[in-house]
Amino acid sequence: MSAAVRGVRGDLDPALLGVVDAHDHLFFRSPLLKGQELDDAGLAREELAAYAAAGGGTVVQWTPYGLGRRAEELPALSEATGVHLVAATGMHQAAHYTRELLDARRSDLAALFVRELTEGIGDSGVRAGLIKVAGGFHALDAHARWTMSAAAEAHHATGAPIAVHHEMGTGALDVLDLLCGELEVPAHRVILGHLNRSPDLVLQAEAARSGAYLAFDGPSRAHHTTDWRMPEEMAALADAGYADRLLLGGDTTTAGARSVSGGPGMPYLLRRVRPRLETALGADGLERVLVANPARAFAVEWA
């Protein structure tokens, strides 16, 4: 069995992904972001088209269960723009959900994840290609442990990668202790998000040493003053021997952050971040981050 990336229009040869935005959102709704929802399919299409025009080939959407994924829209958006899309199952922090929804999923969360990975999201027919979960600020609460346990169970059933939101970039080692230690998920199947938001090179190197992937994915968040450090951090990790662990994403989570609405959006990765990374990493290093690494990180020999 050969490895494949599970796209919204079917499984993909990893070699065909092209340049990958390894963490972003086309649709996202949360009670924590009222009035800033990503829920306009027309604007999503324009954003993808702008990304494609800048040289983008694939977007991995980390929007999980219950947050307005609109999975039924994704195949048409992919076909119209020529950009491959990967959808997510999983569950975010508890604050993004109602108590009723959380209670309703208390006994079948892992089964839900497996079903969305193997059969499809709702009636859309779109199968998810990864599992998204989240930690807290410097800690893992009971909700995080519950969702990560379900994610690990779904991983063991399918082989799907697990992508993790780290609040302000913290808690990565606790996540690795739980997922890769207690729950026995291979580290190379774990993607640690937002580590650029806590520019601790010692922690980043320790996380990379585990074999997990490190996603530097904050450029759409203008209030994060750590973005300017990102190329130098990635260069330091590459110099330390971890160039094959690095990924890049935009993490566009609000309507105003889209490029077509006046924000940086997905194209910013390629218009502005890519030249700085090429200076820091060299052409070969940049190719690894944007093309080779994500092709491995999201490819699975699907069970």
General description of the model:
The protein has 303 residues and is of the alpha/beta class. The protein has one domain (18-297): Alpha-Beta Barrel (TIM Barrel), CATH 3.20.20. Helix content is 39%, strand content 14%. It has 9 helices and 11 strands. It has helices at 41-53, 74-81, 99-104, 109-118, 142-158, 172-182, 201-209, 230-242, 267-297, and strands at 5-7, 10-12, 20-24, 58-61, 84-86, 88-90, 130-134, 162-165, 190-193, 213-216, 246-248. The strands form 3 sheets. It has a 6-stranded parallel β-sheet with strand order 6-7-8-9-10-11. The chain has a 3-stranded parallel β-sheet with strand order 3-4-5. It has a two-stranded antiparallel ribbon with strand order 1-2. α5 (142-158) links the parallel β7 (130-134) and β8 (162-165). The N and C termini lie close together (9 Å).
Neighbour order of strands in the largest sheet: 6-7-8-9-10-11
Number of helices: 9
What does the main sheet amount to?
A: 6 strands, parallel
Shape: globular
- CATH fold-level topology: TIM Barrel
| Named CATH architecture | Alpha-Beta Barrel
Q: Structural class, judged by helices and strands?
A: alpha/beta
Average pLDDT, all residues: 94
Helix content: 25-40%
Stretches where pLDDT is under 50 for at least 5 consecutive residues are none
CATH superfamily: Metal-dependent hydrolases
